[in-house]
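Z., the sequence and structure:
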Amino acid sequence: MNTTVNVRLALFVCALLFAGSITRAEQPPQPVEKLTVVDSTGKSVGNVLGFDSSFSNFLLHPIVAVRVNSALAVLGAGPQGFVDIGPANTFGLFFTTVDCTGDGYVSPDEVVEVSLLPLSLARANKVYLQSGSPQSVLLRSFFADTSGLDCVTQEPDDLVTMIPMRLLTELSIFTPPFSIK
């Protein structure tokens, strides 16, 4: 009889445990209050404002904003650091220096939309922000791709009209890879 009681008690405990796991599995999904992009050290890069899918239909980059003094830059965050969002991910960034340093310039043909925010570009772990009206400049170098790691020197031809992009800040305070919490 003692064995029967032990078997019944064991079955009862198993039933309670099983019923508890079913109850937990049936809870509805809970809303997320906010998502934050963090670097590999756990430092907050910024709150996620939305997502950009301009690279492809299935790859989403979180959009974050960084403020430097009073200037606001809106950028994408990828696993290996900051990326451009929207059509800016194809913009060429040109320089009047021979080594891709200082303020940059973009073609006015590429900046066609009116926005509430100035154009922001991320290249070589630096942020560039649109600053002013088109001006005539001699271009001496450019980044060969949007990573900003390959600077190409060119002989200046004639003066060209370009939109200035002020070097806002370096982002070396953040250490990739980035993740979302």
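Helices lie at 2-25. Residues 35 and 48 are 5 Å apart (CA to CA).

Let me know what you think.
H.
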